[in-house]
Specification:
The chain is α+β, with helices and mostly antiparallel strands. Helix content is about 20%, strand content about 35%.
Amino acid sequence: MRCLYEDDLLWVLDKPAGLLVTAKDGQQSLEELLTEASGETAHLVHRLDKDTSGVILVAKNQPTREYLQKQFKQRTVHKTYLALLDGDLSTDYVLQETYLARDKHRRTQMRSYPKHDTQHQQLRFARSEFFVLQRFQQRLTYVKITISTGRTHQIRVHAKEMSAPVLGDQVYHHPTTLPLTFPVAIRDEVYNLSRQMLHSHQLAFQHPDSGRMCLSSPPPDDFSDLLTMLRRSAVE
């Protein structure tokens, strides 16, 4: 786990995929590792899914946590993600605005509703903007995503609704079998992915003392290596 920034009030970290943010069923977590390594209590400000990599913000005390969480609630934190999608978006820009709640029949999943239902008390508004960066054989799409809300599985649910789920998503998709027009190395790599190709790329927020800050990290090796393979194949 790489530290992108640290001072007396907070950490900005580059979380690896496969690491839980908080402890569950005896599994090691970012919260525990950070507390053990620093000797300071980690106060979580927001979360990333276990298999989502990238930039995450953690406070060192409760007042700082409350200050930062207020920005998330007021939607003044700018969050940018990168993802590889299994699908070809019809336009270069797509706006998804729905309401999310836990699926009653599949408790590990979230479900999307097109409008608010007063009978469903758990609905939360979710807004995601998808910008196409590159397409590969009208099948896979590399995108940038900005979100002004931060609901559980928000990007993954919205991507699935566009018939372009996040590549490697073990919950909202199935192993991807690419057509034979892709090189065999890429087909094998994609089929055997063990986690979703979703990366928290950039986070911009107001520091309690230092003003506006913007921290970013590039995608990790599994993501960037696959992207490199796709780009090389596209020009051959």
